[in-house]
Design brief:
Elements lengths: L1 H8 L18 H13 L4 H17 L2 H4 L4 H21 L21 H22 L3 H19 L7 H18 L4 H6 L2 H4 L3 H5 L5 H8 L12 H11 L11 H12 L4 H16 L3 H5 L3 H10 L7 H18 L17 H15 L3 H18 L7 H13 L7 H16 L8 H16 L6 H21 L3 H6 L9 H14 L1
Length: about 500
Amino acid sequence: MELSSLLHDLHLSSSSVKPRPSSSLPPITELLSRLQEKLSGASSDSEASSLIGRVERLFQTADPCWLFSANGDEEWAELQAAYGALVGALIGCAALPPCEDDCGSLPASAYRSVPGRAGPVCSALAALLRTLGNAGCPTGLLLAVAAPVCVFAVTHSQDQVWTSSSSRAAAQSLQEVLLRAGGWRDSAHLLMGDKRREGQGGEEGGRSRGVLGGILDVLQPQLTKDSWQRCEAVKLVFSWTLLQVTRPSLSPHLSHLLPPSLLLNDHYRPENCILGVHCLHHIVLNTPAADLCQFNRAEVLYQALFKHLYTSETAVIQPVLSCLLDLLVVLEKPPSSLGPSSSRRTSCRHDDVLRLVLTHMEAEQKVALRRVYAAALPLYIDRMGVAVCRHLRQVEWVVLGYLEVRDPPEETSRLNILEVLKMTTRAAWPRMACRVDVLLRCLLKLLVAVSSDSGLSVSVRQTLMNQTCLCLKLLDGCCHGDVQRLLQQVDSSCCSAEVLSCLATVTVMNS
């Protein structure tokens, strides 16, 4: 009776009430078209909710042979278009309200009705997918609806103001139904497909296809410079999609993935900027260097990231420094890998980044930002190799400044700076002898300060002192035993037994 009542309400004649194919039933495309019109023209939430419920029951009870009946390529194309339009209408019933300007956010009250509308839509779409999966229809029909369904499910599975616990559960259940319907293992497989089997013909090859291209087609109109801020969800769906795509599937879609990532990266709000940097870093890690260098893309990325080094936002600087480190090896060979030639003496982008980082480190007072800089610096010093000689004066100032300042409770900044000093001493040892006097005084002050600092745990204190002693040993090797002779002149009455014990290990090891 449900089917007969629905057809009657839609003014489509039927003399049969049984859910089975019959000459008296109208073409399914005609029914889908009328349903799409009704859903799009619903004047109230209650009317839309009633229609969505009836659509769900239609997919649950009607004969699949009628629901998915088509003969020939033209009819299949028409059927796919009809289901695509109906799915779009269903999704539109739970669409997020657009922002009226470029602020990119609305008050929570604007989304109050969205979770209640998203749940029934998820149920109706899940019913369609179950029937599709069980009916064994050609995969073209499933692929036609999979992309918009995936975008909808990801939008409403986010822990955001437009979702509730029940709507998130419904969206996550819809994602699981979608994976089962297409035989995809997980979300990454859904996006990328199986490249090894994609070339096979027939159903096997069709079910190995991913829907990344389809999802990007759905998102593309909302990812332009003028429109991406009008919907809060679009950036989250885009980043969710991008961050699951790896080599070699990412490179063919680079032209669609890079511009939105750059838009996010360039935004003034830190949360958007951070999201953009993460997207760019993922692209750098999962794209061949040749593809990144094509059309000068790598240089564009470098300039977009380099400007962030002038910010004082700790949450932005940290991912930027990490991304730049991986991008620089795409643009040029690391200075540490170059042979003894004139090219090693030529300043490069590595130098530009390190010089600016050291400049900011010298004047930085924020503890959180100092920790970020100190954590990143050893990686850059290691990348420079002997070319760090070009920056020895700045490195010395940073080492002296950071070792003087406490960083409890873990003393991560001091430990990282000691690592910087060790790397620099090993790489540029011929240039360190003239700096031994200043560095020796600093390291001795550090030993005395740490040994008397009751706020440090025993393990942290011991680690600091051990690393300091190792720096002393390396400096002694640079100046042919001068440090050892100077340490023997230390007044034992001014030092604790713990400090003297550490100094003794230096003199013993180098004697």
